[in-house]
C-alpha cells in the first residue's frame, strides 16, 4: 500500500502543503512551517521505507548537479573506481566487488543523464525506477559504512550499548530499510565532502 501511495521521490510540492499535515491549533508546528516558507519554495517527499534519507540526499544532490557543472566533475571522481572510493569500500567487509560498485550501469546512467543536462522530469522518472534508485541507496550506504569504519576512533564515541563500529555498520548502516540518524548523515557528508542541512519539524 505504501508503494502504491508514495513514489520513491515525489514531484515538487508547494511547501505550504505541510499545513495540511499538522493541526491548525498546533502553534509550534504552524510557526515552524512559516519559518520554512521564508527559506524554501518547495519540497519533495520520499517513500517512508527506511531508505528515505539516502533517497532524499541522492536525488537532491543529482538535482543540484544539473545546475552546477563544476560540482558535477568533482562528484564524478567518487562514482568511478577512484583510490578514494576503493579505500572506503575496502573497509566494508562484505562480499561486494569493488569494480561492480564503481561501474554499475545504473549508477553511471544516472550520472550520464546529469552530464547531458536532461530535463528534470526525465531524471526524476529514472530515479523512481526501483532498480536504479535502490542501487544508489546501496552505494550511499556502503560509502557511509566505509567512512564510519575508516574514522572509527572518532565515531565510536557516539555509539551506545558497547557495539563496535563494525557491528554498528553491519546492523544499522549496510542493510536496506534501516533508518538513519545523525551519525549516518555526518559520515556520508564527510565521505563525499558535501554539506547536508537538516530541518526539523519538532
From TrEMBL:
Keywords: Hydrolase, Protease, Thiol protease, Ubl conjugation pathway. The keyword Transmembrane helix does not apply. One of its GO terms (molecular function) is ubiquitin binding. It comes from the Eukaryota. SUPFAM superfamilies: Cysteine proteinases (SSF54001). Its EC number is 3.4.19.12. Belongs to the peptidase C65 family. GO terms for cellular component: nucleus. It catalyses: Thiol-dependent hydrolysis of ester, thioester, amide, peptide and isopeptide bonds formed by the C-terminal Gly of ubiquitin (a 76-residue protein attached to proteins as an intracellular targeting signal). The keyword DNA-binding does not apply. This is ubiquitinyl hydrolase 1. One of its GO terms (biological process) is proteolysis. It is an enzyme of class 3 (hydrolase). Residues 41-202 form the OTU domain.
Amino acid at each position: 500500500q505504501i508503494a502504491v501511495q508514495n513514489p520513491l521521490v515525489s514531484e515538487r510540492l508547494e511547501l505550504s502543503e505541510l499545513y495540511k499535515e499538522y493541526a491548525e491549533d498546533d502553534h509550534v508546528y504552524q510557526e515552524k512551517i512559516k519559518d520554512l516558507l521564508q527559506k524554501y519554495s518547495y519540497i519533495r517527499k520520499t517513500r517512508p521505507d527506511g531508505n528515505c534519507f539516502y533517497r532524499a540526499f541522492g536525488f537532491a544532490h543529482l538535482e543540484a548537479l544539473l545546475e552546477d557543472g563544476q560540482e558535477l566533475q568533482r562528484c564524478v571522481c567518487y562514482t568511478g573506481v577512484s583510490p578514494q572510493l576503493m579505500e572506503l569500500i575496502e573497509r566494508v567487509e562484505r562480499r561486494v566487488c569493488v569494480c561492480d560498485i564503481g561501474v554499475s550501469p545504473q549508477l553511471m546512467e544516472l550520472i550520464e543523464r546529469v552530464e547531458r543536462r536532461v530535463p528534470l522530469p526525465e531524471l526524476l522518472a529514472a530515479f523512481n525506477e526501483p532498480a536504479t534508485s535502490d542501487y544508489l541507496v546501496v552505494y550511499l550506504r556502503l560509502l557511509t559504512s566505509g567512512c564510519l569504519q575508516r574514522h572509527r576512533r572518532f565515531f565510536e564515541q557516539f555509539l551506545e550499548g558497547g557495539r563496535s563500529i563494525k557491528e554498528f555498520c553491519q546492523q544499522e548502516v549496510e542493510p536496506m530499510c534501516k533508518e538513519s540518524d545523525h551519525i549516518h548523515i555526518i559520515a556520508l557528508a564527510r565521505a563525499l565532502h558535501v554539506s547536508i542541512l537538516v530541518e526539523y519539524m519538532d
